[in-house]
Amino acid sequence: MTLYVGIDVGGTFTDAVAVIDGRAVRGKAFSTKDVTSGILAALSVLQERLGMQERAFYTSVDRLVLGNTIVTNAVDEQKYAPVGLLTTQGFRDTLRIARSARTDERDPHAMAPAPEIVARRRIVEVAERVDARGNVLVPLAEASIAAAVDRVFAAGAESLAVCLLWSFRNPTHEQAIARYLDAHHPGVPYTLSSELTPVYREYERMVTTALDAAVKPLVAEHFDQLAKELAARGLQQRIQIMQVHGGFLSVEETGKAPIAMFNSGPVGGVTGARLLGQRLGRRSILTADMGGTSLDAAAIIDGQLRVLPRAQIGGLQTSLTAVDIETIGAGGGSLAWVDGRGVMRVGPHSAGSTPGPACYGKGGNRPAVTDAALVLGLINADYYLGGSVPLYPEEAREALRAEVAGPLGLTEEEAAAGIYRLTASQLANALRKVTVNRGHDPREFTLVGFGGACGLFAAAIAAETGVSEIVLPRNAAVFSAFGLMHADSVFSAVQTSPWTFDQPAELLEESFQALEERTRSWFESEGIPHDRRELYREADMKFAGQIFEVTTRLSGDRFGEHHKDDLRRRFIADYEAEFGSGTAWTEAEILVVNSRVRGIGRTDSQHILDDADVEEHRVDRRQIVDPATAELMTVEVHRGFRAVGKAMGPCLLEEPDTTVFVPARATVEVVDGGHFLIRLDNA
After folding, report:
1. Statement to judge: residues 37 and 136 lie in one domain
2. Is residue 664 part of a domain?
3. Is residue 92 part of a domain?
4. Residue 509 and residue 568 in one domain
5. Which biological processes are named by the entry's GO terms (predicted)?
6. CA 18 → CA 293, 432, 438, 448, distances in Å?
7. Residue 255 in contact with residue 237, Cβ under 8 Å?
């Protein structure tokens, strides 16, 4: 027997999937503040549905992969452990100066400084200096280390970030601080920039280091608790954690750099969508993952995830390499409200799982998107999550009446339709950011929608962005958990190593060899079999005089003089693919800034498995409010739709853990693996 488990912790629900000898079982539980109890509750649902005793279930698990929100929540809510920062004398205000006040915000009254990670009183300068070539100009004395460490702890720091100028060229001073901390303050968590992100750009490197140190105590506490609970129940395998770059690492490796857990759950969904696209023969895919709190959008181009070398996290520029995901605060639990100008708004605040939308009957009295969908008749109050969670339509109506319909002089149905359309418009904007804003035409993509709430909005989002084809996976409500189980192990080693084409190829080769040695050590520590190991070399390159780089993959194992022309051609092709044909500045000198080696341990589970149980087909008719017109209409409501296989809109497809709305002039059919394929008439 082989048992794989994937868990995706969301803002409202914790999703879990178990695959046992080809049979897939899924379960949901409400997310909790401590995260761990929500995970355990979701695992209990799987255990019960598999008909196994607790001990037998946990001891049988061969693989457990987790997408966790603890880091994402800490960054989004700016709730960190008290962190201190040691930096070079004269550079105390690097975080405050940032990249000046310029942002995407055009309203000068709305401009704000970058979010604060470290209180200024806990930023302490150290008397030391290394130059751009790595030469020591001002030696670092132990007395200076002791004085700085004492000051930062006296200011209340519980963890430390160490980011010294030019330490990526010469890390000896940061290493000396680490030795002092190990000897005099054992057990205090700290992060060295020269180990976490040894690349240039002082601000981004400092932000990344500070964020990592700020979340380390939170992650350590959570994983300690989770590991104890799971071990007590009999789990024998190591927990694997999805990372921001699109692969997973063990808990032990994740603990060394927990900031890489940011957005780990949404990355699982994008990974699953790529694999589903391969299965269905679609290579250009937009993903829309809509749960209770937010929507995460991403683009898969030519079968590949788009990866950013300088990811933005919580409004901060970092030096992390991350899957390009655009997140907006619009989900099933997003609250609808009327602002001071008398304008309807949706989000970014969410009702979460407690108290949840008003219709949950758990004390919430503010209307959420789910309340609007219930008033429109799109959701069956008696079949929410397969009937396991009762809904209360009158409480939803009362909340809409008090907070939106009354202030705007609308009926409850008109207010609900407005909330629906506004939500769909905001979701469409997220898709435009990963397509139009990146130079891609959304009409050339297939939309893969998943998450418990996406089925209600997928067609409206697609229509607004010009997409004509939508795929809703049969396991849409827990699709990110499925994707987590099918991800690879990924390790990325990077180093700033300036190189130009007039220099010997051997200099660049030495940098790659050092990174490959680190990657091979990781393969060994993770116990990845030789036949599943892959190594890729990449270089961050730019034309002389430009600020930012484009990442280019190298060919071959060893870089020699005869590879220079090939590397130049590859870079120009990648540059024009990113910025448009003819944009390459071919007369300028080309610089290699960073060398990077990606190690991939291929998983042995690269296909999406299906649920064994198929519900018997049943069709009813129900009166709903058309979200587009706020007028009443009668539609067919299908359960067990896979037994029929094809229908015309308007209709509703009710699944145990999601509902799909198919609008007028659209068709829906069941395709390979039991997935729903919706085609829109966008003429």
Report:
1. no
2. no
3. yes
4. yes
5. glutathione metabolic process
6. 24, 34, 37, 22
7. no
Q: Are 98 and 118 in contact (CB under 8 A)?
A: no
Q: Within the chain, how many helices (H) and strands (E) appear? A: 18, 35
Claim to verify: residue 82 and residue 71 sit in the same structural domain: no
- Is 545 strand, coil or helix? coil
One domain, residues 103 and 215: yes
Tokens 């998450």 correspond to 451
CA distance 256 to 216: 8
pTM of full prediction above 0.85: no
- What does the alpha-carbon distance between residue 256 and residue 249 come to, in Å, rounded to a whole number? 11
Which is it for strands 239-242 and 61-67: parallel, antiparallel or unpaired?
A: parallel
Residue that the structure tokens 């240039």 belong to: 200
**pLDDT, mean of each 10-residue run, the chain (683 residues):** 86 85 82 89 93 94 86 81 96 88 61 84 97 95 96 96 96 97 96 94 95 93 89 90 80 85 83 89 93 87 83 84 84 91 89 86 92 96 86 95 96 96 94 89 94 92 95 88 82 92 95 95 90 93 91 88 94 89 91 93 60 70 93 93 85 90 94 90 69
Instruction: Scan for tokens 């044909």, then name that residue.
Output: 581
The angle subtended at Cα 590 by Cα 586 and Cα 592, nearest 5°, is 150
CA torsion through residues 399, 362, 327, 286, sign: negative
Residue in the block written with tokens 């907070």? 403
Range of the domain at 364: 334-422
Residues 138 and 204 in one domain: yes
Q: Are residues 412 and 362 in the same domain?
A: yes
